Every structure is written in C-alpha cells, then in structure tokens.
C-alpha cells in the first residue's frame, strides 16, 4: 500500500469518516474516496454499495478488474436513559457489533450494577456531548420520556446528522416534542428524520422486544443510508 493511501485512511479513521480504496488489479494503482465526496460516474454504484455494506470485493468495471476495500468507522449507539429497554439493548448491541454508551443523569438508574458491559455516564447529556461529539456513524436513542433529558441530545443528533435518531413515546408525546423542537429553531426537515414511536412496528410489548425493534430499525438505517451526502445524508 502506498504511503499516501495509508495516510488518507488513517486521517479518515481519526475523523470517524468512511473511506473506500479502489485498486486497479492490472497495475496496482489505488485511489482513495471519502464518504460524501464525488465519485467517478463509472464507479459510483460500486463505491456506494461498499459504503453501505462495509464489505470488500472484486468487481469488473468497463473491462477493468478492481478490488474495492472499505474502511468504516465502528458504528455506535448512544442511548439516553438508563432504563430497562437500555439494559436489553446493551446486550443486543454488543452481539450485533455496535459500541454503546448510555447517558443518564439520574444516578438511581445509572448504576454499574445494572450496566456492566457498556460505557455508562451518569451525567447530563449537554455536559457529555461537547467532549464526545455525535457523528454520522452514531445512532441516538432517546428513551427517558423526560424532555429535560431527551431534547438536547435529540437536537445535537440532528445537527450532527447521525444516521439514526429515535425517540420513545406515543404519537401524542412526539407531537409535543415536535412542537418544542420547532420552537427551539430546529428545521422541519430535520425533525422529520426522528423515528417516533421508536423501533420497527413488530407489536413489541416487553422492554426486550422493544429493544429488538429498536436495534432492527438502527441496522436498517445504517445499511440503507445515503453515503454520498447528495440527498442530505441519513434519513
């Protein structure tokens, strides 16, 4: 691998930005493309598919044999609320390959005894997020039902263009949330990205079932996101 290629990959990794390396197998020449950049039209579909799937492979394009290698930031889930759903989601997220952080200022809920396998921060989200910024490879799940805790990270996630933003609550609860966010100056098209009620509609009832529905919706959003940035990013 050329030094310039390695430097570009390392810079992308440090910035939690995806990179795709396309190598012409006939001469070994490589090019690096970063997520959100313009891709050569003849390679566009190939690169977009790699960014969505995270899988490397060989492809033939216009008579050329190409090896496409993709470097994706580790996807992560930030759950707001140390609730029963978060306990189940923490176990599932690890199995599915997601890093996970739980944030909740309520120390009665945010206890190490309840959350042993994931990072737990018993602090207010607005105190945590400046030093741990959200990004396009983060899914945010707001689960407390408390606007004082949930609203700030939801706004931060929309501003950071997280690939997934979901919030617990009924349609009535979400309607009130939409009104608050609008009054706070959040654009309507950003608010429309919030998945609420959170999770795929599978008839989930228990906290564990709701966690399954949430994780499934997060995976769907990750694999079907627009990695080009041309349509405004994740939806």
TrEMBL record:
Pfam families membership: XdhC_C (PF13478)
Q: Out of the domains of life, which is the source? A: Bacteria
Family annotation (InterPro entries): MoCofactor_Util/Proc, XdhC_Rossmann_dom
Q: Which residues form the signal peptide?
A: none
Name assigned to this protein = XdhC family protein
Identify the species of origin. Sinorhizobium mexicanum
